[in-house]
Model the fold of this input.
Amino acid sequence: CTAEADAWVFLRGWADHGEASAQYNLGFAYATGRGVPQDDAEAVRWYRLAGDQGNPSGQLNLGLMYATGRGVPQDYVQAYMWLSLSASRSSGETRDSAVDNRDRVASRLTPDQRAEAQRLAREWDEAHPR
Done:
């Protein structure tokens, strides 16, 4: 379908120009294989670009990728950090999902790992004012 192809070109253009919601949507497309070949590493790349701009959905999905080891080595400290950031910057269903998943990840962390994840989240938050 030409309209769908045009939509992907448009979305990719916005994502390439730094639009966080477009970056999140492109990450989701790669994670699910919707309209593009399924590619977890590419999904992580786009989620990180969105998350680095403070996009809570990008942060949530990046945290989930770290928690499950999809597209990145499994890393519960990174997962906890990104899920915490999403929880602090979102509301509604996104916040609920971030909190639930963060708490699930927390059960897999030692107290030192949890403190490290909280420190990383705090440092990221201070470096990225809202």
User: Anything to note?
Assistant: Residues 58 and 109 are 22 Å apart (CA to CA). The two ends are 39 Å apart (CA to CA). The first helix runs from residue 2 to 16. DSSP finds seven helices and no strands in the chain.
